[in-house]
Specification:
This protein folds into 2 domains: 75 residues, 2,3-Dihydroxybiphenyl 1,2-Dioxygenase, domain 1 (Roll), CATH 3.10.180; 74 residues, 2,3-Dihydroxybiphenyl 1,2-Dioxygenase, domain 1. Helix content is 19%, strand content 34%. InterPro entries: Glyas_Bleomycin-R_OHBP_Dase (IPR029068), Glyas_Fos-R_dOase_dom (IPR004360), Glyoxalase_1_CS (IPR018146), MMCE/EMCE_epimerase (IPR051785), VOC_core (IPR037523). One of its GO terms (biological process) is L-methylmalonyl-CoA metabolic process. It comes from Candidatus Kentrum sp. TUN.
Length: 151
């Protein structure tokens, strides 16, 4: 029986850049870094000769974020994977406070914020927490993230 999300894995191309983005700009805390290789990881991920750097980050009330940079075999990014309507897992959403201030700071840092925060009409979807304001942005590798604030 499932009972909670353990972690979310994001494959990155530049570990230092991604750690900076998620810690300094989004407020995650880096808890651990590791280097993984060997039969055990190759069996689980289904790839040969895996060598990867891994970083674990946390938020106070959220699941762990696992950043993984494959040094071997190196994967490729596909532009279609960063489009919001591509089939499959498309974004990870983070609940925030003061979405407007966060978006302003991200834009000052030249982060690809796709729009200003917009409100979901209560007649379309109502949320117990209040009116939902949200926007999408892309991390340094093009992964779509959502910021959501309930007012």
């Amino acid at each position: 029986m499932l009972h909670k999300i353990d972690h979310i894995n994001i494959v990155v191309t530049d570990m230092a850049r991604s750690i900076r983005f998620y810690t300094e700009l989004l407020g995650f805390q880096l808890t651990k870094q590791a280097y993984v290789e060997g039969d055990w990881v190759e069996t689980v991920v289904g790839l040969p000769d895996v060598q990867a750097d891994v970083a674990y980050l946390v938020l106070p009330d959220g699941p762990r974020l696992e950043l993984m940079q494959y040094n071997a075999p190196v994967g490729t990014a596909r532009k279609e994977n960063s489009l919001p309507n591509t089939v499959g897992l498309r974004h990870v959403a983070f609940q925030v406070t003061d979405i407007d201030a966060i978006v302003k700071r991200l834009r000052m840092e030249k982060i690809d914020v796709l729009s200003s925060p917009a409100s979901v009409p209560a007649s379309t979807v109502s949320h117990q927490e209040g009116a939902k304001w949200f926007c999408y942005l892309r991390d340094p590798d093009g992964v779509i993230l959502e910021l959501a604030e309930y007012r």
